Prior knowledge:
alpha/beta; two-stranded antiparallel ribbon
Amino acid sequence: MGPTSYMNKQTCIIITSINPPNKAMQMFADGIKERNANFIIIGDNKSPEDFNLDGAKFYSITEQLEALHEFASLCPTNHYARKNIGYLLAIRDGAKVIIDTDDDNLPFEAFWEERRLTHEARVYNKQGWLNVYKLYSDANIWPRGLPLDEISKETPKLETLEVETLDCHIQQGLADVNPDVDAIYRLILPLPQSFKSNDPVALKPGAWCPFNSQNTTWFEAAFPLLYLPAYCSFRMTDIWRSFVAQRIAAVNNWPVLFHSSTVWQDRNEHNLIRDFADEVPGYLHNATIRKLLEELKLEHGDDAITSNLRACYCSLVEAGIIGSEELPLLDLWIKHFE
């Protein structure tokens, strides 16, 4: 893979937005310009026609169709999965590291540190679900996507976990102030919440925790796993992607790294009851998805990643969890990695 740390022209930050340039986007653009890196913003039907932000490359729907006609034509509009187009454009342009974030996350100074593949981290190697947020907080808090019956289960103290040096192809950073919690949390428990600055923790194969698209670093070997499903709930697309990614990472013996916050969220306006409705498929199916994915017989190795990806999504389509329309779009995605 070459060098193992980047924050330069081989790094690309990607967001999708329907908003005009805001403080978060301006901060990302300013930081990127200082480092000669790249910043892609993927628009949608509601994006301003005159969007312009120095330091960012904005792609309107028309420009997306011009750049990646086949995939952009099939990918639904008015959907977060349009972000897939940004990933493909970054990869086409030579990205080695992709930083996944949103237009309401604002970077701390630590966000701009070099992205290193190799980390010294606390290691969690038990089978099953782990509430990573509890390793960084004393509050009753859990990540969006964690099965509800796992919320109250005991979590080990971070300092009791052994330390190892590991290559981590997927790295999830937390977010302070308004972290990524589900609608149930938002309706009944207090915000803001911020996390402790603790050691990173690496989840070994067989350990599961949902991760999101708000502050996530992906290294080149894991790029095929960036795929966001389009034929599922908006509130589940990045969560279900994380389950597929963790399953395929596991067969390759890749740990998934979680680390302290390097952004804080000034959350865009949301209808919490609508969010709750969009999260119901997750409340009902997240544990089932893990079981389905664990039962699959996948192959080890970089060459098998795309076939494993298709096997995972076929399983979810066959179970009626994701729509069958997903598979033609996924096949177009896979073509970019063959």
